[in-house]
Specification:
The complex is a heterodimer of chains A (329) and B (470).
Chain A lengths: L1 H13 L1 H12 L1 H4 L2 H14 L7 E5 L1 H6 L2 H4 L3 E3 L7 H15 L4 E5 L11 H7 L4 H14 L9 H9 L3 H10 L6 H13 L28 H16 L3 E5 L3 E2 H6 L2 H16 L6 E3 L5 E2 L12 H17 L7
Helix pairs in contact in A: 2-11, 4-7, 4-12, 7-13
Chain B lengths: L5 H20 L4 H16 L3 H22 L5 H32 L13 H16 L9 H8 L2 H4 L7 H4 L11 H34 L6 H33 L16 H7 L2 H12 L9 H19 L3 H19 L1 H4 L4 H20 L3 H13 L5 H4 L8 H25 L2 H7 L2 H16 L15
Helix pairs in contact in B: 1-2, 2-6, 3-4, 3-5, 3-6, 4-5, 9-10, 9-19, 9-20, 9-21, 10-16, 10-17, 12-13, 13-14, 14-16, 16-17
The chains are: A alpha/beta (329), B mainly alpha (470).
Chain lengths: 329, 470
Amino acid sequence: MKDILKLIRNFILLSIPLMVLCVLAYILPMSYMGPEYVMWKEEFENSDDPYIDAETLIIGDSRAKSSVLPAMLHDDTYNIAIGGATPIETYYAVKNYIDKNGAPKYAVVVFAPYHMCDIDNWDQTLYFNFLRPSEIAEIYAKAVELGDPVVARKGRIPEMISYRLRLPSKYLSQMYEADFIGNRDANREMFDSIRDDLGYLEFGDADGDDGETREVFHESFDYSELVVYYYEKLVDLLSDNEVSVVIAQPPINVASDEAMHEEFITGYTGFMDHIEYRRRYYNMKVIKEIPVYPNKLFGDSIHVNRKGAEAYTKELREYLESEDFWMWD
Amino acid sequence: MLFNSVEFAFFLPVVAVVYFMLQERFASRTAANVWLIFASYFYYMYADVRYGLLLLAVTAVTYISGHLMGSSTMTRGKRRTVLIITVVLLIGALFFFKYASLLSSLIAEDEALAVILPVGISFYIFQSLTYVFEIYQDKAKPSPSMISYVAFASFFPVLLSGPIEKSSHLLPQFEEKHVFDYERIRHGLIRMAYGYFLKLVLASRLAIAVDLIYDSYTEMTGYQLLLGTCLYSVQIFCDFASYSTIAIGVAEILGFTLTENFTQPFFTDSCASFWRHWHITLNNWFRDYVYIPLGGNRKGTARKYLNIFIVFTLSGMWHGADITYILWGMLSGLFQIIEALIAPLRARFPRWLKVIFTFMLFTFSMFLFRSEDMGQAVTIIGKVFTEFKPESILTTSPFSLGLGVVQFFFLIAGIIVLLIYDIVNERTGDTAARIAACRTPVRWAIYYLLVMMILGSTSIGAQQFIYFQF
């Protein structure tokens, strides 16, 4: 027994460096993480303690984040979209927001169509650790049930544990890259800038881009059942909380429009029909058409630049005003 | 399941604790061995459930043939027949899994068979065959316990990449009582830590530089390719020796003693000696079951050379279904033959020069081993001889090899630790024991150095072990 205790004691002593690294990874994320983390942090902090008392929320992914300027859209509007998020993460983000602050009166939901097909950032979601273990477990259980190849892939459980424990195998390379605390000032500055812009964030700042967007790589609308499940859940959540909703499409550039497969567009439009058909959402409208903007309004191949955001926000505002959106009850 | 995975960090303590409890609770070894079988199959089938069926089939075939050959009613001729059938079945299975895809692609490129190579198959088939060979040679008796045999044939520390244990060495250990022994466990943990050090601190970093050079080999000078291949020699040593070292450490924690697989091969001064220190258990296998039955060195010099050549060609074939591996094996055999032929000339050179020369010959053979195909190997070797460009020694920054300044110095520090460990091992035979015998502050300083270096490397490079593909 004495030897067993000695072994355990020595093991604990030898684990101290590991624990130190895990603790550093846990307490210093704003000092070593990249810009995507800042966006998530801002959004989740905003859920806990909103920067403004928003009447209208912009909900969605990076295209929503970079396409809609809240200050231009309407008074008391805040953009809580999250870059790299699919409706899965967004559902929990919105749920947290509503649970803590009550529901907004209006919401504009904007997701890139390809996000219905690809869960391309799930590792990032786990890496950032903003979702609670119970939420991750719920998503995983659903993914297993639906046989999702990304979220429920083999080896996910130990990975989820590694991320939750902040093991160095997952975080150290980023900590090295940032010299442990080298990103602190830039991240803080970015955080403040997002707040100043009421949640808007520019993703690409080029004066034009003729690259093709992700939708182009899909020959058909090969949607993910898990994403669609959460998309519907998100819409249900908003509906149950009597939020007036407009679902809009983010813009794509001319180059992508020319290359996009007809079958994908048809399939996606069908999916939007299906969402619209769930008509118990009496106060919901779906804009199915994907707007096409000149290449010069894109900061990279998939996100509009600030000029593009201004153009899109203006167009969206005019549409919403024409529909008397802010008069809906 | 990889030794360097989170899963294994949970798996090993559970296996060890339950194993020791069963050893304490029951006088018979059966319960503990059943637990080991369960753990080993779980470990192996974690990657793919189908793998377990093949392992079970190999175990059944060798166990049955061992019993048949051990029967007192069997004549020598019948035993020989059983042996041949067993060897044909197992080597045939090995050949099928390794070569079916290649052969079918040669016959019809578009309709190549997609045969999955079960990980570790070359290792556990060779290990199971030792049981059959040893019974045939009357060096061992059939195992009285089927449970012990199944535990031996599926023993998880050695399952995926060896060491390839002889049944006469490992099998009897399943009949021994293994209890919690602090000193033994500490020794095993030090071995494991050193194995992780080899893999994570050295092999993973070296892989970054080597991959960078080989991925853009057409743009590299001969010097850079030679440098990359020298680094690959060290990488493959660290990678493979790491697996063996961890396996030995894991087995030791459980109370088993495995055969050393690497004993400072880069300190040897001849190719023949090199292969007695590199992948020792595989080379012993070929020595005992191919070289000696072929006549070894008993049938004259020419026959001895032919036997060496055959053994190393087969060793190349064992490594994989590619002409580069076969040529690598032939070349390794050829170097030993030439070395033996010029022995009087070699005797005039100082030892340090012969050590370097041995390393360079091994590195030369690695051009074949590392290359994707013959075309790449020929191009690289050609560039080394025709486009060496010595001036690139001055223009190639060590920091331009994909590692950056911090990681490069981390690598250098790791190589220094490797050299110290190996020098102590060369002199004392057991560095881990020396560490365990150090005074407390020194010992803990070494522990923390290893732990810190390992932790600082956990996010570097690939996780997979190179020898898993064999």
